[in-house]
Amino acid sequence: MDSRCVILDIGGVLEITPDTGWVPRWEERLGLPPGTVAERLEDVWQAGSIGTIEEREVHEQVARRLCLDSQSTEAFMGDLWAEYLGTPNEELIAYVRTLRRRCRLGILSNSFVGARERETELYRFDELVEQIVYSHEIGVSKPDPQAFAVTCARLGVRPADCLFIDDFAPNIEAAQDAGMHGHLFEDNARTIARIETHLSGESSGAGRRGSGGTHARGAR
Question: Buried b vs exposed e over 151-185: b needs ≥16 C-beta within 10 Å?
């Protein structure tokens, strides 16, 4: 197997995750001003993203800060996970599945406590790649340089041999600063073509800008 490596983001890349509008709907339902959910739960979301809070505690904090009963809390969290998990990007997943004999494969995702169990059950990403690195399990999120260092270390690869694919431009820039090649995901066709270029030995060069537009739909 070639030493080259492809590392992918999940949300907005392997999963299609449009904004479902669930937060404004809950604020309207609860009679709260717009932005209240983010304001009251910002530290909970942050803690969940780096694993300093357990899923049970997330539910407790949501219930207490939004004054929800247990049934409403479950419904609230259900809406959160429905948007978070989205739907599978079937075309890209099928293509990545063909790469197992051609290169090393990994995932690096800004995540939330509980994500691994749900994504494994729904999408079997553990069977798609060799290593999945979740921010809530390593304690740091992209674009922190440590997130990229941990991923390379777990895969046993050099940054210069890696192509990192994400839909959030600052994460691509951070990967390039870490010595990786980067590609900003905008559609499957261009992403597949960029992976093929990387695996053929041609490259635009690690650390260079300009590997995509300014799409910043989300930071997962």
Answer: bbeebebebbbbbbbbbbbebbbbbbebbbbbbbb
> Is residue 184 helix, strand or coil?
strand
Task: Tell how far CA 119 is from the center of its chain.
Answer: 11
What is the C-alpha to C-alpha distance for residues 2 and 172, in angstroms, rounded to an integer? 23
**Predicted TM-score (pTM) of this structure:** 0.91
Q: In the predicted model, is pLDDT for residue 211 greater than 50?
A: no
Q: Which two tokens stand for residue 34?
A: 């717009």
| Residue 220 pLDDT | 73
Q: Going by DSSP bridges, is the β-strand pair 5-8/104-109 parallel, antiparallel, or unpaired?
A: parallel
Tokens, residue 142: 């992209």
pLDDT digits (tens, 9 = 90+) for 110-148: 999 999 999 999 999 999 999 999 999 999 999 999 999
Residue pointed to by tokens 């490259």: 203
Does the structure show a pLDDT above 80 at 212? no
Q: Are 99 and 1 in contact (CB under 8 A)?
A: no
H helix or E strand, kind and range, residue 27 = helix 22-30
Q: Give percent of the chain above pLDDT 90.
A: 90
Task: Examine residue 143 and say whether the peptide bond preceding it is cis (omega within 30 degrees of 0).
Answer: yes
127: Cβ contacts below 8 Å, ≥ 6 apart: none
**Torsion-angle region of 205 (φ positive above 0: left; ψ -120 to 50: alpha; else: beta):** left
C-alpha angle 77-79-83 in degrees, rounded to nearest 5:
115
